[in-house]
Protein 1
Amino acid sequence: MANMRELAVDMLLEITEKDRYSHLVIREVLQKHDYLDGRDKAFLKRLTEGTLERKLQIDFVINQFSKVPVHKMKPFIRTLLRMSVYQLLFMDSVPDSAVCNEAVKLCKKRNFHSLQGFINGVLRTIARSKDAVCYPDRDKDTAEFLSVFYSMPKWLVEKFIEEYGEEKTEKMLKAFLEAVPVTVRVCDETKAKELVGVWETEGISAEQHPYLSYAYRLRGLEGISHLAGYEEGLFTVQDVSSMLVCEAADIRKGDRIIDVCAAPGGKAVHAAQKLAGSGMVSARDLTEYKASLIRDNIDRMQLSNCEVLVWDACKIREEDKETADIVIADLPCSGLGIMGKKKDIRYHASKDGLNELIALQREILKTVWQYVKPGGVLLYSTCTVNPGENRDNVEWFTANYPFETENLGAYLPGLEELCEQDGTLQLIPGEHETDGFFIARLRRKS
């Protein structure tokens, strides 16, 4: 029988010491141990993701009670302590004594016999003193306090405060740490009530999203592929922010649509379904692997009006010039708006990396605008809250190419108040009920 804590330690070592992406490691392990019951899978996932997202705060706490700084510890010991302290601080259902005892057992099992006393001493001290942790003085250094308390690199906190102010920044940081439900798009609203009823009999909570009537937030899932209606293509996993791109596109029957960075295919599938069997969606991405993800979605949804190409968005495809009524450009970005789902993005981000992404986005825009017919539309979107990748890129693009910004409020009835004064849409976790996301609708001048 698999030991959940031992699995979690090994996963965390893969992620933090070998620099692998957390969502890939978690998916691999859960698939390999698919025989585990739902409670064990949920415990394993929460323990791994929680330790990762709270890493900065956990390290701060450990350093207050350990004579050996975290960065000087052996990788296994450091990881075992982090995982155990997460349980002590954030998992009330796990007795402190069990946390300490299980950590010592794992230490012994992995042949760190000489460090059993160290592990036991640090954890029992933290267990006794966890309500007396001394965090940085908020009045003296607000960014330092927010960085430690919400486990976000200080340079990112400072950037968010500069762009959004202290109050909105703290709301966003708090939202990133909250449990995120799975959001799905029901493809046929006439079947939504029946589908939700089946889910509820399986113990799943399904709540209609306030922004879109066909979107539902699900809680209590053990796995999406086992859910009623999945194999039949009755619904697809998609955040509401992503759904809003196709709403903003104002798709008409017969339109030709090019989705230039389409994987895993959520927007392309949504667009093809809005075409109701007419027109064509050409979905592209850089590699065969990404293209295969799009094909899997298309096949499950049984769509005949969606093609898939392996294509570099930075390179022009001559035969596509001025052929598209709509171009969807959901471009590679920093992902700073989805840190609530991908916990390790905060640790991979860097100032230089942001600048490189801005340059890449502009290289793609320099190419893909040529696919838009005169009078056609380009939808520019990202899953980030960084204005350099969003508002600034739109200003640069409209200053250099024959496009003008249109007011998204005209295409998103009931959501007009969410739009910015310039007509774009910047969604902020904690303020809006979605991922952090940006959308601009750009019309090519005739």
Note: The chain has 17 helices and twelve strands.
Protein 2
Amino acid sequence: MAKIFVEAYGCSASFADSEMISGLILNGGHTLVDDDSQSDLNVVVTCSVKDATANKMIHRIKSLKSKPLIVAGCLPKAEKDTVEKFTEKASLLGPNSLGKTLQVIEATLKGTKQIALEDTDLSKVGLPKVRLNPAVGIVEIASGCLSECTFCQTKLSKGDLTSYRLGDIVRQVQTEIKDGCKEIWLTSTDNGCYGFDIGTDLPSLINAVSEIPEKFMIRVGMMNPMYMPRIKNNLIESFESEKVFKFLHIPVQSGSDQVLHDMKRGHTSATYKEIVQKARERFENFTISTDVIVGFPSETKEDFQKTVELLDETKPDVVNLSRYSARPGTEAAEWEQIDMEEVKKRSKLIFEQINKISLSNNEKWIGWEGDVLFDEKTEEGIKGRNYAYKPIFVPENVEIGQSMKVKITDVTQNSLIGQIAG
């Protein structure tokens, strides 16, 4: 039996995969260790969404390959040759190949390279897991997506949409709550199209999970705007439950409809604006998170200005800003690229803009008092979330999983600062 070190990068689905890989490792009789210096074998669950991320993955692969190594997650599926360029001996495990985890581990420990990149029929719902955070249950509701975005490797990594059965997901959530989780993350490659392949949808799932009687909160993960028209009214209604954080992550990517067309996003800027408007009309202090890519190959200065205007108009609370980077195997990687200095200039302008918007949005919370669920340890201390999923720090000592009444006294661009109100 081996001592195994597991680490993960990327989205919440990637971290969920690492939890399940760790659970399978323990079930297989092996031991998990906290540091690669103590391990007999290393497992790195990778992400490949951006150049910078892929470069970080390569750095970690190089530093971990002195011992038997399994490279798991999106990078080996999307860029097998890149991984093998830096480590010929490492075994490879795809994001939808978790059913072969123990088989790959046994072979790798014996010095035999195994490549398990084909999808298995194993559902990720109901697998054993070792939680990264005892207060948070990450539940994958589907794998893959329906989109064909010209800039994204996700389709190459995770393939077409495979939604998990609603009843199975509800039972998994019940297990998470029974094990002490106070916060449930419903996550996938794209929550917006959940259920389209099995005759259900995301609002139906949220309603079913909300009906579980115990006290807990639900964070609904990322959903692309192109599927909003099919579910928007029922989706907003499903957020009426007090158990659902008033938070949506809707990546618009650009304010230019021409760029969105070139990206093959399948939505317009108006689609995004409508769901933002509906959410904020129905609920006070609804948190909107979005993603923006600057410097896409076909983005003109006029297109860029439309993104600036869209952000000014919708004032999202969180913007995940990325400079476009050409990812191998994607359509847009073959196009003529914009000069990097121009991309940096546009990125700096948007960065300054979103910092001002975020600070202004956060200042509206000063004086607010209400319940906060403390759900994460960070370098700054214990972080909590209120009903709108706003990140909140307090100077007092609080345990993870505790709910406390907090009064907001100050803010930064990225968080609220408060004190325990009693």
Note: The longest strand covers residues 369-378.
